[in-house]
Design brief:
The protein has 383 residues and is of the alpha/beta class. It has helices spanning 3-11, 23-35, 78-81, 103-120, 146-151, 201-218, 264-276, 303-316, 362-380, and strands spanning 39-41, 54-59, 64-70, 93-94, 97-99, 129-135, 158-164, 172-175, 177-186, 231-239, 249-258, 284-293, 296-297, 323-324, 338-345, 359-361. The chain is elongated, with a radius of gyration of 24 Å.
């Protein structure tokens, strides 16, 4: 199976999440890896067995190199479906690019990693262990995929980890974390003919939104060298029921992006300080529904990282980075199994993912494959 056919086969297996059923694509990967002599395991959480993962292993002993990619995609929304110019699961090729849902996020880099495993399997011996982790459920947080695999001991500690995502074939060493929360103001509802008898929850919330915007602007004093600034964004607001009544509740949902080094507990305390600083004229405020995911950061200090950077530099004839990766990734769940450095790497841009006419340029895909193969040759092939 050549590189184009492999990518076509992957794109033609739908794996939208939700619902998150990755059985078909996980089994396809498992069959391909078993056929080349890999040891294959397919763990899945008992309560959600449709979130099937595939782990394929070649070689034995140390060092251990992990190739990681996720196998789920976002679903195709109704409005998005109307804007596709091709069948999103056909894998049409035109003008040097392959179009299809998941083609760039994350099946192109997955295919590159599978091709790298296939070449490595042709060696009589490897100087260590090469693992492919094809993980479920990244698009909705990784709780049934990479996080579950790491927490349950399915993933060994590795000396170097490559997490496949869309970095334009540059090397990313950090991404932001995210904290989300719901804030509610509560007032007193009265007839709008005499609103001063009540307490307007929307007016109170407007003051909080202003304070949060000031907080967002103040965050510009902090900066990370590759991912930039932390941010605070109010993304949802709802309140009131009719124009002729003073609203007694108003709710917002906010998104606070954390740069590496920021502690979620400290960010929560900052947000509470912002809320406490606002004079609400009798209204009350509550913050809840707090959820967060970790940021990720890694160095490039090991020999494996330096070798990888050299492979990228030589293939691209350009500096490989490091750069920041603005979206999140499963790298945050792998920090405890990364004994050495961990990078995010892959073809294309996340800006064409999660949208109509998602595609990957075949030239970029082939470049990714060449870099991964070269790196494994330099680090694991026997002399």
């Amino acid at each position: 199976m050549d590189s184009l056919e492999l990518l076509l086969r992957l794109v033609r297996i739908p794996s939208p999440n939700p619902p998150g059923d990755t059985i078909a694509i996980a089994d396809f990967i498992a069959r391909q890896m078993r056929a080349i002599g890999c040891q294959v395991r397919q763990p899945a959480p008992a309560q959600k067995s449709y979130a099937r993962n595939t782990i394929a292993t070649l070689g034995r002993g140390e060092p251990r190199i992990m190739l990681h990619a996720h196998i789920d995609t976002v679903p195709i929304a109704k409005a998005e479906a109307e804007n596709w110019s091709v069948d999103p699961y056909a894998g049409d090729v035109r003008d040097g690019a392959l179009y299809g849902k998941g083609s760039i996020d994350d099946k192109a880099v997955l295919a590159s990693m599978m091709l790298t495993m296939m070449e490595a399997a042709q060696q009589e011996q490897l100087n260590g262990t090469l693992l492919l982790v094809a993980a479920a459920e990244e698009e909705t947080g990784g709780q049934l995929g990479t996080k579950w695999l790491a927490d349950k001991g399915h993933l060994p500690v590795c000396d170097f980890i490559i997490v496949g995502e869309q970095t334009g074939n540059k090397v990313a060493t950090a991404h932001k974390g995210v904290l989300r929360a719901t804030i509610q103001t509560t007032g007193k509802s009265v007839h709008a003919t005499n609103p001063d008898r009540g307490i307007n929850a929307i007016v109170a919330m407007s003051k909080i939104i202003g304070a949060l915007d000031h907080y967002h602007q103040d965050l510009s004093r902090l900066i990370h060298p590759v991912v930039g600034l932390p941010t605070c964004n109010v993304g949802v607001i709802a309140g009131g029921s009719t124009a002729n009544a003073v609203p007694d509740t108003c709710v917002i949902r906010l998104d606070r992006r954390m740069i590496p080094g920021e502690a979620p507990e400290a960010v929560i305390a900052e947000l509470r300080t912002v809320l406490d600083s606002v004079d609400l004229n009798g209204a009350t405020v509550n913050m809840g529904d707090i959820v967060y995911s970790r940021w990720y950061e890694s160095g490039l200090s090991t020999e494996y990282a330096k070798t990888f950077m050299a492979c990228v530099r030589e293939e691209l004839d350009d500096e490989p980075g490091p750069i920041g990766y603005l979206p999140g990734s499963d790298a945050k769940h792998l920090m405890d199994v990364a004994r050495g450095d961990m990078i995010i790497f892959g073809p294309g841009s996340y800006e064409v993912a999660h949208a109509a006419d998602e595609h990957v340029r075949l030239e970029d895909y082939e470049t990714t494959t060449a870099i991964l193969k070269d790196f494994v040759r330099r680090t694991l092939y026997a002399d």
